[in-house]
Amino acid sequence: MLATAALAGCSAGADGTAYPVETAATAASQSAKAAQLPQRPADLPLKDVNLCEVFSQVDLDSLKITSVPRAAPPEDGPTCVFDADGAEPMHSYHVRAVPADLQEWITGARKKNSMTTEPKNIGGYPALTNYRAAGDPADCETLVGVARGQTLAVQTFAISRGQLTQPQLCEMSVHAADVALQSLKARN
């Protein structure tokens, strides 16, 4: 009987990894996260923004981008890839315009129990970092609610395995998202 009770709190993910099933306590925790987010000071629509031009040359240099930005297949909205592959630790930034509200990652359809989300304030805008806390650090995504139903996503991927920690990947992602947000503010 005890084993059944212990197993009732978990479910298997798509790859067979167990993750906790959301309880009333975690639902309250998610609502608390949403309450920590600042109100968006102004809309910065992503429509007609060429994401491959969101960073100036100075920004590209500061982010150590060494390859020509390139459009990627739009998995979840328009995407541009920026590679920092000229020196170790090699990494990549994927910048996406996602047609969804930021709340979707907290309480909606994009929320995943296997992911850790942390509320942030980036340039006065509501934001989240979103990453898998278990296993080898591979990426960290920063999501910024730039307009109603529009989220700027900046995901940092480690190309060089084992050279970047999860906090480093998230710090890099937050920094790149802030730089992109400043560029969007300057355009509006």
The number of helical segments is: 4
Portion in strands: 25-35%
Coarse structural class: alpha+beta
What sequence of helices (H) and strands (E) makes up the elements? HEEHHEEEEEEEH
Largest beta sheet, briefly?
7 strands, antiparallel
Number of strands: 9
**Helical amount among residues, as a percent range?**
25-40%
Uncertain runs: 1-25
- The strand order across the widest sheet is 3-4-5-9-8-7-6
| Estimated radius of gyration | 18 Å
Could you describe the 3D structure shown?
This protein is about 25% helix and about 30% strand. The N terminus is likely disordered. It is α+β, with helices and mostly antiparallel strands and about 190 residues long. The strands form 2 sheets. The chain has a 7-stranded antiparallel beta sheet with strand order 3-4-5-9-8-7-6, sandwiched between helices. A two-stranded antiparallel sheet has the order 1-2. The radius of gyration is 18 Å and the shape is globular. It is built from 4 helices and 9 strands.
